[in-house]
Amino acid sequence: MPLAFDHQTLGQRILFGASRAAENLALEVTERGAERIMVIASGSAAVVARGITANLPVEVFWEDVAQHVPIEVAHRARDSAAAHNIDLLVSVGGGSTTGLAKAIALTSGTPVISIPTTYAGSEATNVWGLTESARKTTGVDPRVLPATVIYDAELTRSLPVELSVASGLNAVAHCVDSLWAPRADPINAALAVDAIRALNGALRTIFHTPDDLAAREQALYGTYLAAVAFASAGSGMHHKICHVLGGRFALPHAETHATVLPYVLGFNASSAPRAADRIAAALGASDAVSGLVDLKESLNAPRALRDYGFAEGDIVEAALLCFEAIPASNPRAFTVGDIQELLHDAWEGRDPQASRKEPVHD
Ligand code: NAD
């Protein structure tokens, strides 16, 4: 088979090392000559961020952060950054915190240094998201891509097991979807497969020993590869479904990803056999879906959408919205009825292996 593709790599500096966040950040600030920093961090990450930035020229310490970046919060943060003539944004936290830094960068062009403390992966993408009147809008803009990402596994040791599992499976979802998303290519696939391998091992260890630094490092490494693959490949069926569930029905981000993934994999696997084989191998399983189900079971991961506020009565509307959003390039052809069935299985938490349907015509 001839090999031909158009791959774009986003330019970022990655500084990776446990207990090195303060040192690596100081290095970046010096090299950039930053003089007026805005630090964005909330909750437990705020305490960590104060420690990391103690000796830096911090002008604003911003703790007003909310999930899915409400536009009102973005306006307030943008106004503060402008009023203080900020020349560098430093975010310390999960995807919500990175998201707010991106929202400021989107309108100001101020560079962002991201120090992630979850496995959301937003730090490695040029995708922004904002929520206005309960509607989430996303877009792609080079200004929001953090210039530098500083990974320090020490900062993730405090991430509770449940959040680690849901967030880590969100990273696995980046990998799986990037194997059949619209701009899927062999480079993304290589990154995604190694990320699945790293995340599979790391999450199993973290579940039993949340404090294991080596596993935390592997999880961050997998997170980064997964996000790079996803940023390059784009959103496939899985992300489009989760976007509808999160945006229209306000379901929690990471838990929704963790729940829906095996159903999408089950739906697509037989029409994407090469991808399925690679996922299975990366999971150390003979079959992709059973490998993913096994991983989820060993992590006691989120199982059913009804546990996260999704109502059975919303399935019909959700299926229609998903049908309109899912790329036509999905490896398996689909109807609104297929999506309705998939969502019903995910709502109920049916065994994804039992809910697998073989394609009839495709
Ligand atoms: P989050 O940032 O909302 O964090 C979840 C919770 O974990 C928060 O309560 C936070 O305070 C806590 N937390 C974070 N790090 C911690 C740590 N080390 N120890 C203890 N507690 C910690 O959730 P998330 O899953 O990281 O991110 C979800 C958001 O990111 C969503 O809005 C999603 O849309 C966005 N996202 C964007 C992209 C993108 O490319 N733009 C990619 C993935 C996710």
List keywords for this structure.
362 residues, six-stranded parallel β-sheet, 8 strands, globular, binds nicotinamide-adenine-dinucleotide
Write up what this structure looks like.
The strands form two sheets. A six-stranded parallel β-sheet has the order 1-8-5-4-2-3, with helices on both faces. A two-stranded antiparallel ribbon has the order 6-7. It is of the alpha/beta class. It contains 13 helices and eight strands. 51% of the residues lie in helices and 11% in strands. The protein binds nicotinamide-adenine-dinucleotide. The site of nicotinamide-adenine-dinucleotide has 27 residues, from helix 2, helix 4, strand 6, helix 5 and helix 9.
